[in-house]
Amino acid sequence: MDNSSESNVKVSKHYQKNLDYLNRELGVPDNFDIVLREMTIGGKKIAIYSVNGMVDTQVVSIILDALVELERADLVVNALQTLVKGRIVGLQVSEVDTMDKILYFILSGPMALFVEGQEKAIIVDARSFPARSPSEPDIERVTRGARDGFTETLAFNTALIRRRLRDPKLRMKLMQVGRRSKTDVCVAYIEDITNDDLVKEISEEIQKIKIDGIPMAEKSVEEFILGSKIWNPYPRVRYTERPDVAAVHLLEGHVVVLVDTSPSVMIAPATFWSHTQHAEEYRQEPIVGAYLRWVRFMGIFAALFLLPLWLACALNPHLLPEWLQFLGVQEVGKIGLIPQVFLAEFGVDLVRMAAIHTPGPLTVALGLIATFMIGDVAIKVGLFAQEIIVYIAIVTVGTFATPSYELAQANRLARLFLLLMVALNNFIGLAIGVLILFFLLWRTKSFGVPYLWPLLPLDIKALGTVLVRSPLPIKNKRPSILKPKDTIRQPQGHDEK
């Protein structure tokens, strides 16, 4: 039966008809993990559906004990009310009358109970997900601060946010995506802060997704709601695995999208500068945080521009003043500088990918092989100039210093583009490449928010908070570009003290 007709199927009074339908749809008994238990209680037949491994066996035992104690008189009149209100207590229980909802609940983990002669099923939430405990994300580590991080279970992730924001206005809107996967997607926002149009746009775009499933979770959702532009590598949403980072953005007026089975949540909208900030800056004194931010800015700048700029200088030493002549190379090597640079870039990417696929205990050995056996030998045999290794190392450190992995990868592609422009036309090619890159960023938007805001369009006060990690007592305004309902964070006027 197709999905369009399935949504219209109602629970029948005929007990066996309901079982035949569900057994056919769920593949019982072919699917070993779909559990069907039938019993007769009080003279009425009862069927219980569940998924093996997704229900708490202790809770199931308690429910079964309660059902066994029922007498025939208890089920003669209003059997559902007797079961729901009289016996199954302490659990989230609801009544459902359509088969599509029942199938969704069963495959999501809750139990479904059918009572002979009833036109509704009882859904009992006795889920016990296979899940890992919250742990600190590897990419977003801090020296001090919370060590918990999002997991692959949606309910755990929403609880981690609720723990930090005990605001009754915090909304968690749940919807399903995927005709077959029916993956839970949650849109989180604070009702009296976040702009209604932003929430409406994101929610409507998610509801428009028509696909069989989204096994790649939040990345698949992003490509649908923003549109995949293959010519633009820059991320238009921010990802985080830290609940405290998600909570901060909710308080600013952003929308957070959580997808079940993913430990990363999506923050929208996002600007270029959103990807350059890190939680570590706010776990230190303001002056220390400002210093760390500027060091990070220099690392990002070096990762993007240092190697193309050096290559242009090395290819045109006659254009350099005397005090910059050291930027050239003493020995070019057996192949030209341009092939050397691209080989070194691809080599670093190859080592990085190898490190991802290498077991943890062997990563140190991989680093030693790449550093000494490949890098050192390549210089001695004349494959690479010594200067190239130095600049590649600086660029690689700057790439790893970029807080956002997505931004680091985008800058990597932008750097390769600038290197190609230098190879084509030296300094003029570099200048043209920078202009093209700037035009791309200027034209990029995230849910209507300019990507380079607050630089373009210029917002002096907001730009100051981007360039300098200011103390929280004087950070009184929410980002104006988000058009929040409540623009003031500290109504007591702390910024006037």
From TrEMBL:
Family designation: Belongs to the GerABKA family.
Protein name: Stage V sporulation protein AF
Record flagged with keyword Transmembrane: yes
GO-annotated biological processes: spore germination
Coiled-coil residues: none
TM ranges: 294-315, 362-382, 388-405, 417-442
UniProt entry tagged with the keyword Transmembrane: yes
Superkingdom of the organism of origin: Bacteria
